[in-house]
Amino acid sequence: MSHRSSSEPVVAYHDRIAARYDEIYSGPYWEFYRAVTWESWKGLLPRDLSSRALDLGCGTGFWGLRLAKSGYRVTLLDISPKMLDVARRKAEEAGLLARVDFVQADLCDLSELPDARYAFAVAEGDPLSYAADPARAAREVARLLIPGGILAASVDHLCAGLDFYVEKGDLAGLERFARDGVASWLAERPEERYPIRMFTSEGLRQMLERAGFEVLWVRGKTVLPLRKHPDLLSDPKNRDRLLRLELGLGRMEACLGRASHLQVAARKKGPRG
Predict the structure, then answer these.
(1) I want to staple 142 with a disulfide (CB 3.0 to 4.6 A). Which of 131, 207, 212, 232 is the partner?
(2) Per-residue confidence (pLDDT) for residue 273, from 0 to 100
(3) Residue 151 CA to its chain's centroid (Å)
(4) How many CB atoms lie within 10 A of CB 162?
(5) What parts of the chain have a pLDDT lower than 50?
(6) Which of 132, 84, 144 is nearest to 108 (CA)?
(7) Are 247 and 36 in contact (CB under 8 A)?
(8) 35 occurs within a structural domain
(9) Contact between 58 and 64 (Cβ < 8 Å)
(10) Number of domains making up the chain
(11) What is the pLDDT of residues 179-198, one digit of tens each?
């Protein structure tokens, strides 16, 4: 199957939900989740605000526009044209069009973009997990970064997918999933379902190292079960306490199995200028 044909369900699903995507991922838990992400980037962002940044699988532009507000020139890239439409409208409303540009592309084929142009790339919302060929996508991202450039990304964690098969009593499915980490995005419409790759920390490290990265760290996100207890996040003081706890626990290798996602920071190998 070609990358083009395998991407059709991904485009169909994200085009359909683009107008309400921000609403779907709103509320106390997702605000907390994004705070964990932003805090994890401290120390990774380029000090030089003239550096170019790349938001891969940008969706409605949350991270790319936040980077643009911080002063960077940002390329927002997504496979879904309707997601890009929403991101473009938000950029216009925020007065950021002068600092951003938009590219529609599949992560497995970023040939429209030049080599070694970006100092910082983000791939949040798990676009590497949704790519038809995550290893190829990782190589494409490495090509775009300058030597020493940083990738900050999240992926779906294999441990988070085990319960689904156990609860169904699907032992054959559980064995396949434990072996290859491939599950399916269970959209309501069959034509919008597509395979997703869920990673172990070891598998994620290996893939990025083979693509030309030095992995700086892998952390769990989120370890605390706050998606089931969003009421704990209603008090700002409690939220700050829980954020400190989450950031500490996410660094502990022993806690990785509790995390629904893995957050990774990786540096492109090669001499830096």
Answers:
(1) 212
(2) 47
(3) 10
(4) 15
(5) 1-4, 273
(6) 132
(7) yes
(8) no
(9) yes
(10) 1
(11) 999 998 877 888 889 999 99
The predicted structure's pLDDT at residue 2: 40
What was the pLDDT predicted at 272? 59
- pTM higher than 0.90, yes or no? yes
Residue 63: count other Cβ atoms within 10 Å of its Cβ: 25
Is 32 within the bounds of a domain? no
Print the domain residue range for 140: 3-23+41-224+249-268
User: Whole-angstrom Cα distance, residue 244 to residue 8?
Assistant: 40
Structure tokens at 228: 């089931």
Burial of 199 (0-12, 13-18, 19+ CB in 10 A): buried
Residue 239 included in any domain: no
d(CA 110, CA 103): 10
Q: What is the CATH number of the domain that holds 109?
A: 3.40.50.150
Q: What is the predicted pLDDT for the residue at 157?
A: 97
Q: Peptide bond before 75: cis, by omega within 30 degrees of 0?
A: no
Q: Where on the phi/psi map is residue 7: left (φ > 0), alpha (ψ -120 to 50), or beta?
A: alpha
Predicted local distance difference test score (pLDDT) of residue 265: 98
Mean pLDDT score of the chain: 94
Closest CA to 212 of 137, 111, 138, 107: 138
What count of other Cβ atoms lies within 10 Å of the Cβ of residue 39?
13
230, part of any domain: no
In this predicted structure, what is the pLDDT of residue 5? 56
Sign of the torsion angle spanned by Cα atoms 180, 186, 191, 197: negative
Angle between helices 3-17 and 81-93 (to 10 degrees): 50
d(CA 107, CA 128): 8
Structure letter (DSSP) for residue 114: P
